[in-house]
Amino acid sequence: MIGSEPRTEVDVMACCGSGAVRSPASTATGETVVQDREKLAAVAPMWQTRRPDKRLTRWVNFYLAYRRATGVTMVRTVAALNSILVIVDLAPAIQRSLQGVPSATVSSVTGLTGTPIAYERTGKEEGVIVELTPLGARALLGMPLSELGTARVGMADLFGADARRLTEQLWDADDVDHRFRIIDQWLADRILDGPKLPRALEGSWRSLTGSRGDVRITDLADRAGVSRQHLTTSFHREIGLSPKTVARVARCHWALRLITGRNPPPLATVAELCGYTDQAHLNRDFRLLVGSTPTGLLQSRDAQTDLFLGSEIALHPQHATGTPLESGQPLS
To answer: Which of 244, 245, 264, 246 minimizes the C-alpha distance to 255?
Structure first.
């Protein structure tokens, strides 16, 4: 049954302020987002996740609903991901890219990323994040993911009036569980019969991510019955990243799981377990994919930053301790 999967509640974030009545808020691009400042003030801040309806598990990894407000500017980093993020903003914070490139500031879709994305956010924010597999994104968007690239593109540019209707439905929902059910149905209507990735490419992607990057590209090409060059070219066109980059991201995520879990091993051991040549190699990959070395990540005491790593593990500010990290647990 839609919406029957359990949800996981994690961090409780800073509370929202008060305001007036329901009204539309126009963005700089002219897109309208429904807001109700009185409603924002009346409910507690939250950070809740849930798996999608079982029909969607091949296409969708998870949903995350959030609400919070801060009196300071927060720096948010989205680490390199092997997934596509759809962010539906209901009360969008003011945000600014820290990388000097134009990007959607309201309700965005972000392609697979081989480098971290950083931006500032100020004020109240509320919304839902949907994490799609490449198979799901291909079906939803109806185009090769290389056309999306790593840019943050506005949902309104991709889905037109459907994006606004979804935003309004989510805002009018009775509670977070209702919002998740609305997204279940919205996605099911669009992706179950949508365009599919070629079977060989889907299998290659699942091998790369399932093995935590520990598989040779040549072996994947042999299984697919094509040359390594042909596999690499078609993989990059359809999925948006090269097989080698997908493998590096998967390996980095596994290392992150180890160092942020219970009783983490020494970093030299993590490097060995994850297939890095040494700890220096581990540090270099972390800088490139996460934006910090493992040591810098764990020792940070800056409560004005947070880090998003998708459904594999999510790290975010823990205001009680003043550190932006807590031991992350993947969704079961």
So the answer is: 264
pLDDT in tens, 69-124: 777 888 888 889 999 999 999 987 776 776 655 566 678 898 888 898 888 888 88
58 vs 60: CA distance, rounded Å: 6
pLDDT exceeds cutoff 90 at 250: yes
Q: Regarding beta strands 305-308 and 84-91, do their DSSP bridges make them parallel or antiparallel, or are they unpaired?
A: unpaired
Closest among 305, 299, 310, 296 to 324, alpha carbons compared: 305
Residue 243's Cα: distance from chain center in Å? Answer: 19
Span of 123-137, 149-163, 199-213 with lowest mean pLDDT: 149-163
Backbone angles phi, psi at 278, to 5 degrees: -165, 180
Do residues 130 and 85 touch, judged by C-beta distance below 8 A? yes
Quick count: other Cβ atoms within 10 Å of Cβ 49?
21
Number of alpha carbons in the 13 Å side-chain half-sphere of residue 70: 19
